[in-house]
Amino acid sequence: MKHYKVDFDSMLWEKPAAGFQFKACEHDGTKLRLVELTKDFVETDWCMIGHIGYVLQGQMEIDFNGNAIIFSTGDGLFIPPGEKHKHKAKVLEDVVKLILVEDI
Q1: Total count of domains within the chain
Q2: What is the CA radius of gyration of the chain?
Q3: Are 102 and 50 in contact (CB under 8 A)?
Q4: What is residue 64's predicted lDDT score, i.e. its pLDDT?
Q5: Residue-wise pLDDT tens digits, 72-104
Q6: Which of 73, 103, 71, 102 is nearest to 88 (CA)?
Q7: Average model confidence (pLDDT) for the chain?
Q8: CB 35 within 8 Å of CB 98
Q9: What is the DSSP code string of 28-72?
Q10: Which of 2, 18, 30, 57 is the least buried, fewest Cβ under 10 Å from its Cβ?
Q11: 47, exposed or middle or buried, with CB in 10 Å at 0-12, 13-18, 19+?
């Protein structure tokens, strides 16, 4: 295995949407992402990707098809993939930073 340390400081931010940027490392079917969201981020479609993660900073609300849960600094999250667990995130503070681990 050639990856033991992920040097996020040396990576460039990818910015796929307003208010959403990330840095990612992929290895053997798993992706590790450092994610930063701002209040400009608006999730219009339901996400059905599974996420395992940890909130480094900030507060966000995740709507699970009408059941909203607030995640804050220090909270972990475990969202299985699929329609049953579809979700949308909303940023409640200026910035939310989190680490996410995802299957690719």
Answers
A1: 1
A2: 14
A3: yes
A4: 95
A5: 999 999 999 999 999 999 999 999 999 999 988
A6: 71
A7: 94
A8: yes
A9: TTEEEEEEEEETT----S-B---EEEEEEESEEEEEETTEEEEEE
A10: 2
A11: middle
Residue 9 lies in a domain: no
pLDDT of residue 54: 98
* Host domain of residue 25: 14-103
pLDDT of residue 103: 86
Q: Is residue 1 part of a domain?
A: no
CATH of the domain at 65: 2.60.120.10
| φ/ψ bin of 65: left (φ > 0), alpha (ψ from -120 to 50), beta (otherwise) | left
Report helix, strand or coil for 104. Answer: coil
What pLDDT, on the 0 to 100 scale, is given for residue 34?
Answer: 98
Residue 99 confidence (pLDDT): 98
Residue 5 within a domain: no
